[in-house]
Design brief:
This protein is an alpha/beta fold. The chain has one domain: Acetylglutamate kinase-like (Carbamate kinase), CATH 3.40.1160. The protein is built from 9 helices and 11 strands. The strands form 2 sheets. The chain has a 9-stranded mixed β-sheet with strand order 4-3-5-2-1-6-10-11-9, sandwiched between helices. A two-stranded antiparallel ribbon has the order 7-8. It is globular.
C-alpha cells in the first residue's frame, strides 16, 4: 500500500462527471467507478471531503439565457447538486464507506445543514463528507464552493477533476491539437493566462490562501490514488509563497 502525501483533501466533482458518456442525468456505471476511486483512498486513512456540481441535471447559465431570473436559476442548480450528493452518498455507503451529506441550503429531511465544526468532526472520525448546494448563494459557482470549503476545513489540497482532460492546457485540447499541457504553474499565472483551471473567483480565493490544486482526469485508472500519494499526475497549481 503506497503512503499518502496528504491527510485531508477536498475532491471537486463536476456534475458532468456523474453523467458519464450519456451527457445528462446520473450514469450508474460512472458512479460506481467514482466510488472505486474513492474507497482505497479512504482505506489509507485519508480524510476525504467532496463538493459536487449539478450541471448534469441543471445549468443556471443556460436557463438565464432563456429569460429565467438568475438567482432563481442558481437556486435550482443548488437543488440539482443535492440530488447528485444523495446519489453519491448512497453509492459510497453501499460500498461500506460511512458518509454524511451537508447542504448549504436547508433540506433537513435528506441532509445535515452545513456546519464547519461538525464537518471537521465527521472527517476526523473517518467519514466521507459531501458538501451540496454550493455556497448557498446565487452567482457563486461550485468551483468557488470547493475553494471555500477546502479553506474552511483546512484541507491540504484541492483536487479538481476534469472530464476526459488530464490537466490544464494552453487551449482546449479537444479542439486545438497544438494545445500545450502544463505540468506545473502558479495561481497567478493561471489567472493572467485565463486558463480554465476554475472560475476566477475560486482561483483568487486559492491564491489568497495559498491553497494548492491538482487538476486531473478522475476517470483515468487509479488517478485519485496517484494524486493523494504525490505521484506525478495532471497539473499542479501552487502559490509562489
Amino acid at each position: 500500500m503506497p503512503t499518502a502525501k496528504y491527510k485531508r483533501v477536498l475532491l471537486k466533482l463536476s456534475g458532468e462527471a456523474f453523467a458519464g458518456g450519456t451527457g445528462y442525468g446520473i450514469d450508474p456505471a460512472t458512479l460506481e467507478n467514482i466510488v472505486r476511486q474513492i474507497k482505497p483512498v479512504t482505506e489509507m486513512g485519508v480524510q476525504v471531503a467532496i463538493v459536487v456540481g449539478g450541471g448534469n441535471i441543471w445549468r443556471g447559465a443556460q436557463a438565464e439565457k432563456m429569460g429565467m431570473d438568475r438567482a432563481t436559476a442558481d437556486y435550482a442548480g443548488m437543488l440539482a447538486t443535492v440530488i447528485n450528493a444523495l446519489a453519491l452518498q448512497d453509492a459510497l455507503e453501499r460500498a461500506g464507506i460511512v458518509t454524511r451529506t451537508q447542504s448549504a441550503i436547508l433540506v433537513q429531511q435528506v441532509a445535515e445543514p452545513y456546519i464547519r465544526r461538525r464537518a471537521i468532526r465527521h472527517l476526523e472520525k473517518g467519514r466521507v463528507v459531501i458538501f451540496a448546494a454550493g455556497t448557498g448563494n446565487p452567482y457563486m459557482t461550485t468551483d468557488t464552493a470547493a475553494a471555500l470549503r477546502s479553506i474552511e476545513i483546512q484541507a491540504e489540497i484541492l483536487l479538481m477533476t476534469k472530464n476526459n482532460v488530464d490537466g490544464v492546457y494552453s487551449a482546449d485540447p479537444q479542439k486545438d491539437p497544438n494545445a500545450r499541457k502544463f505540468d506545473k504553474l502558479t495561481h497567478m499565472d493561471a489567472l493572467k493566462l485565463r486558463l480554465e483551471v476554475m472560475d476566477a473567483t475560486a482561483l483568487s480565493l486559492c491564491l489568497e490562501n495559498s491553497l494548492p490544486i491538482i487538476v486531473f482526469d478522475l476517470m483515468a485508472p487509479q488517478s485519485l490514488m496517484r494524486a493523494v500519494t504525490g505521484a506525478p499526475i495532471g497539473t499542479f497549481v501552487y502559490s509562489e509563497k
